[in-house]
Design goal:
- This protein is of the alpha+beta class.
- The chain folds into 2 domains: 100 residues, no CATH class; 131 residues, no CATH class.
- It has 2 helices and 20 strands.
- The strands form 7 sheets. Strands 7, 8, 11, 15, 16, 17 and 18 form a 7-stranded antiparallel sheet that branches. A 3-stranded antiparallel sheet has the order 12-13-14, with no helix packed on it. The protein has a two-stranded antiparallel ribbon with strand order 1-4.
- It is elongated and about 105 Å long.
- Keywords: Bacterial flagellum, Cell projection, Cilium, Flagellum.
Length: 267
């Protein structure tokens, strides 16, 4: 009976974590470049139940040999193994703001590949993002809305000297002071990136520069790829699954209460 408690409780915990991921997706439905998290539920390893016994051998003095017979397997619940970002392209929305940039994917050489802007976080480390909602700080550098420097192809902050600049389709920022290629990075497997806050992704190894296969649209933003309607439907389904596990847990609790009170009274 205690095993039933653990199985129902693990189901409740898994549905709660799934619900948290869905809530976070809906909260970021209007965040530019946000990539929706997908929950992967896995079953705990199955236990093989065997009946242990003995068999009497036909010998003169009699002898019993130990043996076992498989009964079947026993499941022990589920858990959320991981949250994996969905790196599919979001819709492109026109804003008309000069500092807004969007990466439009071309025919990428790898099915799981991804293209990203390269930025520098507060600790001076390179990070990657699809959120092109940029601005120009007081010193004339192109930054993210959180104040992180946007980097060029050489890994340096980009000096724009104001809001008057143009970005070509192949990612070259043109100002009165010259042309600066944006640091557009490519990874053959975007699932290897670690998701951080503020729309940033981290990589253990530095990503390679992108060689074409994309277009930069100035005055546009890539929208979140969250499907709000689908996420709301999944939230209701997750809530119902949580309630079902809760009812199972309550039933086990009532059975345990009867076992303790009634069997104890018979003794």
């Amino acid at each position: 009976m205690l095993r039933g408690f653990y199985t129902a409780a693990s189901g409740m915990m898994a549905q709660q974590r799934h619900q948290e991921a869905l809530s976070n997706n809906i909260a970021n439905a209007n965040t530019p470049g946000y990539k929706a998290d997908q929950s992967s539920l896995r079953a705990f390893p199955e236990l093989l139940i065997q009946k242990m016994g003995s068999t009497e051998l036909p010998v003169t003095r009699g002898y019993r040999a130990m043996d076992s017979h498989p009964i079947g397997s026993l499941n022990t619940g589920v858990y959320v193994q991981e949250h994996t970002p969905n790196h599919s392209q979001g819709d492109i929305r026109e804003t008309g703001i000069t500092t807004d940039l969007a990466i439009v994917n071309g025919d990428l050489p790898d099915e799981e590949g991804g293209l990203f802007f390269t930025v520098q976080n507060a600790a001076g480390e390179e990070r990657y993002t699809r959120n092109g909602n940029f601005t120009v700080d007081g010193a004339g550098f192109l930054t993210t809305s959180q104040g992180y420097y946007v980097l060029d192809e050489a890994g340096n902050p980009i000096q724009t000297n104001g809001m008057e600049f143009t970005v070509t389709g192949d990612g070259v920022l043109q100002t009165a002071g010259g042309d600066v290629p944006l640091g557009i990075a490519y990874t053959p497997d975007a699932n290897e990136l670690a998701k951080e806050g503020n729309g940033l992704f981290a990589s253990e190894a530095e990503l390679a520069p992108a060689n074409g296969n994309f277009q930069i649209h100035q005055g546009h933003l890539e929208r979140s790829n969250v499907d709000s309607l689908q996420s709301m439907t999944q939230m209701m389904e997750t809530y119902r699954n949580f309630e079902m596990n809760q009812r199972v847990l309550r039933a086990y609790d009532e059975s345990m209460g009867k076992a303790v009170s009634e069997i104890g009274r018979l003794g």
